[in-house]
Amino acid sequence: MDTWLVVGLDNGGTANNATVLDSSGRFLVDTLVENPSFVRQGPEVAIPALEQAFDNVLGRVGATRTQVRAVGLDTPGPASADGVISSKGGTNFGHPDWRGFDFRAALEARLGIPVVYNNDGNAAALYAHHLHFGAVAATGHSSVSAIVGTGLGGGVIESGVVVKGAAGMAGELGHVHIPLHGLLEDDQPLPRCNCGFIGDAESVASLTGIELNLLPYWLTRFPGHELGAVEPAGKAAKLLRGHAENGDEMALKIFEQQAMALGRLFTIAANFTDPDAYFVGGGVVEAAPHFREWFLDKVRENTLLRTEQKRAATISLVRDLDMAGARGAALAALAQVPGR
After folding, report:
1. 228 and 206 in contact (C-beta within 8 Å)?
2. Which of 2, 56, 127, 143 has the smallest CB count inside 10 Å?
3. Tens digit of each residue's pLDDT (9 = 90 or more) over 176-234
4. Which chain regions cross the lipid bilayer (predicted)?
């Protein structure tokens, strides 16, 4: 192998996923390549674990470190545009040593190779964008992605480039306030987000939103439902998708509210950035095809576009979601290699 490479590293709460991209933009890894992240044990353990993931994926494709021009890193937030973890830490960064830690610089020093940073939502959004439009056309289009997981991540892509913002917090779609009239039932409490907001998109369209806000209410409307006996509540929330796939009425009510929330979020985006494409990612992408399409149709129904926008834009799913973060991180790194 005589070509130069970039490596993408997707750092998660339990695992690091890695991929390799050659100078022509071709991915050399077509499966999930994971190693434990040990992120909850702090930087002293997590940084060497990322180095191990880096060496492991190079070994997988028969490459050496000398061929690597740049490394793309993505992590969950909150973090600055340059990869400095918030001074308050975060869900995955609870260890005190993470607070204010410069993750990007630490990995760069460890590897001796330039490291390009994005948050995980932005990285997945970048990959979805490039996959949909193609490497050549990607720079001529824009997109907005919403990634439904424990929280609601996302990313805004303009002219093929991630919009990061002044503090690196652009694309935090989960914390955009959405209209709730007609989404909530008349007696349904206002949903609260872990960030402190009331009525933002994440308070509805996330696993946490199901656990804290949606499921407790709907169980009062469906007394005797089997999920009411499941403890803890987080486990019940994770089981909900299986019930929806089987046509459970209560589960479908909850996921319809989530789809409505995403549609209203995209409606805001339509009036703000007017993108060429809207992407939905997260657990729903991994669901049974019939439920996945039902959910996406509900998102479309609740995304209010003008006639001109309907002709110009598409609403679709993020593909290859388990690899999207690492692949997006690699694409971001490739774009920063001088003289390519």
Report:
1. no
2. 2
3. 999 999 999 999 999 999 888 999 999 999 999 999 999 999 999 999 999 999 999 89
4. none
Give the chain's domains with CATH numbers: 5-127+323-335 (3.30.420.40), 135-319 (3.30.420.40)
Residue in the structure block whose two tokens are 């407790």: 216
Q: Are 244 and 291 in contact (CB under 8 A)?
A: yes
Tell me how far apart the alpha carbons of residues 206 and 212 are, in angstroms, rounded to a whole number: 10
Report the run of H or E that residue 240 belongs to, with start and end: helix 233-245
- Average confidence (pLDDT) over 62-90: 91
CB contact at 8 A, 16 and 32: no
Helices and strands counted in the chain (H then E)? 10, 10
* Per-residue pLDDT tens digits for 305-317: 999 999 999 999 9
Residue 304, token pair as written in the block = 């209010």
> Among candidates 127, 141, 162, which has minimal Cα distance to 314?
141
Mean pLDDT of all residues in 5-12: 96
Tokens of 332: 């971001």
CB 337 within 8 A of CB 67: no
CB 327 within 8 A of CB 65: no
Query: Is 228:265 a contact under the CB 8 Å cutoff?
Result: no
